[in-house]
Amino acid sequence: MTTSNEAAPEHLHYEERGNVAVITYDRADCRNAMNTQSYRELVAAVERANASEAVGAIVLAHKGPVFCAGIDLKAQPEPKDPVTGIRPTVATMGMANDTSWVHLMKRSKPTVAAINGAAIGLGATHVLAVDIRIGTRAASFSFPFLTRGSMPEFGFSALLPQIVGFGAAIDMCLTSAKLDAEASLAKGLLTRLTEADDALPEAIALASEIGKHSLLQVSLTRQLIYDNAGEGDWNVILTREREAFIQLFRAQRAARQAREAAAGGG
Fold first, then answer.
1. Which of 51, 139, 233, 245 to pair with 59, CA 20 to 30 A apart?
2. Residues 144-203: pLDDT tens digits?
3. How many CB atoms lie within 10 A of CB 83?
């Protein structure tokens, strides 16, 4: 486990296992429901992993039988910001322009979620921005927005139809659907289903393999998929791919020249 001079987070654990950063939600007494403090700690942990030269990929995991029960509705509200007049909440922070959770996930190192239980409300919406979601038979996704008098958040209204299709997304939201592990896999909410009791070992192993690749190569690949998934202009798509290849080849050439220069100097 890595050491740090920063104060240890209270609601999660951060650990580097080889080239993988494992971030574990640990508010089992609250079913890992998220409040402003736990959200800030989560963002800080992801940023810490992104800044670590030893880390090639990130795993999100959890303690207890529930992955995340959504927003902690019992949390005490924070005072309003004296400058903006806005009261900080998980929603205002996680959906802020340019600094939202989706923005963070998009620019982060590859992410894998290990889901051993229910992902409810925000628990489901925020994990859809993760690259790969591995679940056990105990995993489930629930979207109780209408029954709770709430609304989709964290980019969910775009992410869900991208993953499951427009018609299925409308159906899930309007019926406050709950999907078990098999149905979640069939719809793409889970990208992999493990027969193990704990998805974490498989998630770490997969993240470790991904993390062995060139970070630039992985980042460019992810960026192309993000940018081109909804792009209808093939010229734009192909231009982005050409530019990514050029950027990668130039970096590879520079690295090769640096190695040759170092070998020649020795």
1. 245
2. 999 999 888 999 999 999 999 999 999 999 999 999 999 999 999 999 999 999 999 999
3. 6
